[in-house]
Batch of 2 targets.
Target 1
Amino acid sequence: MNTSEKGKGYSLVALAGIMWGTGFLYIQFVLNGGLSPQEIVSWKMLIGFIFMLLYTIRINPNALKVDKRGLLLIGILGLICHTFYNLFMNLSVERTTIATTVALLYTAPFFVLIISRVLFREKFTTLKVIAVIIAVSGVYFTVTGGKLDQLAYDMTGILFGLGAGFAYGVMNLYSKYLLMRYSQQTILTYAFGFAFLFSLTFSDPTAIFRLDFDPWLWLNLILLGLVPTALSYGFFTAGLSYNIESSKAAVVATIEVPVSVLGSFLIFSEPLNTIKLLGIAMVLFSVFLLRMDSRTV
């Protein structure tokens, strides 16, 4: 595959990262509306499933036909990469802080770098390793502003955060593996459906109907299921289908963090200092390094 085609793949991953970055904004509005983090997981997966199902029926209804082995493999994706990921992330936030959880979540590129070398024989290049280190460091500065007191040290919470990072990394690698055998529509439709069913073990989505009707809450909940869920994962898996390197895709997706921080600054007037701007610049620079690496290997 030529450089131009791979460039399209990385562009789609970057677009997915930007959409993931808007998720924190929708979640904040929904939390303010009275819904719990666990209930948000269920509704996010259910709405994502509905959008993907309607899209698949419209575009490629044959994609809904899948063998038993496929259902099992995609069910594992839904369990680990969506249900466990969201549950671990929420538990980490509960025991630590959002800053700590996001910093731990973006250990994912390290997991991907190592596992992709073993499973897909992706090369360790100097630029790639440097880009991963710069990206993860940039995420840390972007999230914390360089202040250690923004991080909470609870060992159980830290382990949950690392678990979320691992699940996030596995999603990258496992999706690439499934794309060799099944269509994007098949994978996402059934993965979201399974994730919703698994989420019912720890949440009560009917709780929203016990709240006063709030159209703003419902609007943000629908956007949460559409933009940073159905659309973003759709663009991400489409990018992976160009046979781009998983380790590089993991770094490109870290653009999610600068987007969420800038959005919080513009919408919620959260502070944005020089260190956070430096972190954003580091994340963007890491993506530039990966572009240079693509031209030299």
Note: The chain has one domain: 3-296.
Target 2
Amino acid sequence: MKKAALLVVLLLPPSIAARAQVPQAEYAARRDSLAAHMGSGVLVAFGARTPVTDFGPPTQLPAFHYLTGFDEPDAAFVMVVRNGAATPVLYTTPIDPRVAMYYGRRPDSTAIRREFGLAARPFASLRADLDSLAAGGLDFYTLADFEDADFAYADSLTRGRLFMRAFQAAHSGLTVKNAHPLVNQLRARKSAAELVLLRKAADASVEGHKAAMRLAAPGLHEYDLQAALEYEFRRHGSSRPSYGSIVGSGENGTQLHYMLDRGPLNAGDLVVIDAAGEYDGYAADVTRTLPVSGKFTADQRTLYQLVRDAQEAAVRNAKPGMKFSAAQDSSVAVRARGLARMGLIESEDALYDPPGRPDCAQRPAACRQVNVWTIHGISHGLGLAVHDPAQFYSGDGTVREGDVFTVEPGIYINTAFLDILPDTPRNRAFIAKVRPVAERLNHTGVRIEDDYIATATGLEWITHAPREVGEVEAAMKVARDTAGGRRRP
């Protein structure tokens, strides 16, 4: 290595200087596992398209990447399985030579076989090849081409959906099954190579949150913190944020997926920062709540500590071998007791009449007053998608080794939540009792979110940004003192 190149590597953060990757053999093993589950059949999956904007390179779809490792756009993947033995083929689209001068070349069939261990054919031959396979009597399996399962039903006009709809119409009697449950079952347990990438995503994300703590101060804006966060994500090896960075100060912090990030940081407010980096396709997910002025008020401290206690209760009850419902229930119980003490609900088990009017006799948990201020669940899986499959999603709901997930309780106080409740006698009594406290704490949101790996011995916490009250205040104070009374990036 030349001296100049060596110097560049030495100056880079470790996460960039030596990148970890999932080995080709693991992708092949994933395909073999899926083939064993299928038995016999034809899998058809479509990858991401070339972006129609100039905001960054294409991002491959999680299920497609999981099986191939191939991240070029405009490709399809077909795997013919007979008696558990798989024959996989990538169908790729060549790029116009002039366009390649702008966006880069795509690998040819020789490079694909060498780098990915897959045979390759032109995309133009896909339909004819599938028509031939359809005559063989095998069932077909599809992987729909969506970015995240959260939005799988929002768009039925993707290339893959239209193609398979026309293909099935042309072959009367053809059986087409959804392959996502099979692939999700495989994706739910993370391998050692995947855990390395998830830890790196977590490390980069932690550096971003530390930078936000060093910077936050009255007079700045949400976008100042967003810039500091995303700079550190990139500097420590992330290819992009895992999702749109959420930086919500004051009332904006009570909107769960607020992503405008343009409001001011006002003295006395809390700012909820839900932001993380993605490393080689693997997502972290971290939230911290900061006092803009550098110190929590007494009410803010009480609310923050309540959320932190709820998080720790969930962690104690989310170890391998335990049902994850115990983590959810314990977190809700802690928050219910605390909110009752604060006067924000009438009692731990008090009920209200929620919008939509569920049957409270049959589903009392859906009608508890604690839900007004807690809104969301406390966890989801992590991996190639920020909401990835986890093993405890299915079966008996038990956490198992290889699960990677968040623990993220929150409390959000906004009197607007009271204003949208149905006008019933029970709700009127509830609102009259709690409104004075809610108005005092109005526009206060608190969320604390961390990422955990279920191991053979317990849970590994991988997002080590300051989170205790004293730690957060100390991190912000050190920055202020170092900068002579002003925040520094």
Note: The domain at 12-187 is CATH 3.40.350.10 (Creatine Amidinohydrolase; Chain A, domain 1).
